[in-house]
Amino acid sequence: MIRAEQRGPILRLTLQNPPANALSLALMEFLQSELDAVRSDETIRVIVIAADGKLFSAGHDLKQMTSHRGDADHGKAYFEDVFAVCSRLMQSIVDHPKPVIAEVDGLAAAAGCQLVASCDLAFASERSRFAVNGLDIGLFCTTPAVALTRIVNRKQAMEMLLTGDAIDAVTAKEIGLLNRVVPTESLTSVVTECASLIATKSALAVKLGKAAVQKQSAMGLAEAYQHASRTMVENMLSHDAAEGIAAFLDKRKPTEPSNDRPGETRDIPD
C-alpha cells in the first residue's frame, strides 16, 4: 500500500493503492505512521511523497466509505474517523520537522489535491491535473479547502471548489499550488536534485525555520517579528550557525558530519 525507500538523507514514500491511489483509512494510517516514525530520525533530512500509476490520488476511498452507510448510525462514526485521521495527517505534514515534497505525476483530486497543498514543496509533470471536485457528487470539498485556501488566492480556490473543474499543471503553478512543472521523464530526477540540495543544509536551521514560518503565518505583524526574532537567536546560538558563519568569514567550507548511509527499502503490507 505504501513503499518506503531511504536513499541517503531522503525518504521516499510512494502511494500504491491502484487504480486510483485512493486515500483509504488504512493508507492514511500507514502514511501517518511512517511520518511519525521519522520525526526524530537524524539520518533523514527530506521526505518525498509520490505515487505509482496514472493517478497521484483521486481522494478518499468512496467505495469504502459508502459500504458503511449500512451501519446503525448510517456511517456517521466511520465518516468522523476518516476525516479525523485525514485532518491529523495533513496537519502532521505541515508541522513535520522535515521538509515534505509532493512529486505529482497524474491527477490529484479532492483529498489528493489536499495532500499536495499540504506539502512544503510540490513538483508536477506536464500531464498532471488538479481538482477539488466533490460537488460533482454532491459533496463540497470542505476539508481540502482548508489546505487549498492557505496556499492559493481565495477566489481561485473558490472557483476550483465551486466548479469542480480540473486545472492543468501550468495553471496550478501560476496560482501557487506548485513550485515547478517539468517533463514527465525528468520529474523524479528534478525532485531528487531539489531534495538533495535541501539535505545539504543545516538540519537544525531547516527544522527551526519551517516551524517558525508555519507559526508566524497565523500571527499579527508585531507578534510574528517577535517570534521570528526569538527563533533567529536560538538558531544563532547553535553549533551549525556558529560553524557556518565562521566558515563563511574564513572563506572555507563548513565542517559537518555526514549522515549518508546505504539505501534501504521496505514494503508495508496491505
UniProtKB/TrEMBL annotation:
A GO molecular-function annotation: enoyl-CoA hydratase activity
Domain of life: Bacteria
InterPro entries the UniProt entry points to: ClpP/crotonase-like_dom_sf, Enoyl-CoA_hydra/iso, Enoyl-CoA_hydra_C, Mitochondrial_ECH-domain
Keywords carried by this UniProt record: Fatty acid metabolism, Lipid metabolism, Lyase, Transit peptide
CDD domains, A to Z: crotonase-like
Region Disordered: start-end pairs: 249-270
NCBIfam families listed in its UniProt record: PRK08139.1
Family listed: Belongs to the enoyl-CoA hydratase/isomerase family.
Described function: May play a role in fatty acid biosynthesis and insulin sensitivity.
Protein name (record): Enoyl-CoA hydratase domain-containing protein 3, mitochondrial
Phylogenetic lineage: Bacteria, Pseudomonadati, Pseudomonadota, Alphaproteobacteria, Sphingomonadales
